[in-house]
Amino acid sequence: MGNGRLDPLGSSESGENSFELFNMFLTAVMVTGLKAADVLLLPFEQIQAFNDEKTREKLAPVLADFINNEAEVALPWVKKMPPETLGRLLYTLTDKQTYSFGERTSDLMNMGGNPRLVLDQNRDVRQRNAFERILVWLVNGHIKGDDIAYSSELSGKQRRYFEETLTRMSGKGQKPGSYKAEWQALLGNLRRMIYLYESAIWADSDTELNQSGRTNKIYSFRELLNMLTRDYQFYVEKGYLGDSYTAIYIGDCKSDVIEQNARKNAVDINPNCHRVSVMDIEGKA
Hints:
Elements: H1 18-32, H2 36-39, H3 44-50, H4 56-69, H5 71-80, H6 83-93, H7 101-110, H8 115-138, E1 142-144, E2 147-149, H9 156-167, H10 179-203, H11 211-228, E3 232-237, E4 244-249, H12 257-266, E5 274-276
Helix pairs in contact: 4-5, 4-8, 6-9, 8-10, 9-10, 10-11
């Protein structure tokens, strides 16, 4: 279909449904920096390339730079995104740059330090700044020094929007098919976000950011995540081969202990599992 064009609100020659097309359209607009009307003139294959799973890691710093450097343009787009679209964006931004074997070999052969490692770490920092900025926008807050400032009482609507977004954080932006899978998806993506945020904080070469400042930023970020996921309970079971985390949703049964116990049983939370706060959950890529 070499000269096919994208219709983000309708159908295409490729058979993609309109929702997927709209996601593709938004991604292409953000990646290219072109006006929406100009993106519609691009060949459909080129727009597909912007959304290819294989190119996500390469696109992540490009998207991050757009959000960090063009905030006035990005803010209206981000705040209007449905959870399906924002989930894809956050999934891309939390894709940690891979210091590959080939890059390590090249650095060793050049004998000039770790330039490729530094490049990857710098990209992670830019991505961290971008998704932190998005979360701040979602709660109508602002970054003040090492802290994220926002209203101490986030609305149920804000929390639910964030929860819906986390459950859809994937390359496709799709929600899992069962409630148990949905809870675990939220937990997994929460850990993914924490992992990149903290690894990028410690790798940040900003000389004005001392150890205390880095620790404060991590605490402030986790505190925001904690506030946004108050409708969930998280549990951990310690093991020799690693800790196992589980989550349940309690937003609709906060006073119903019987229902909460039924949900714990449904996801195999046993006496060896202990309740854990977002402040203490281990990050994981």
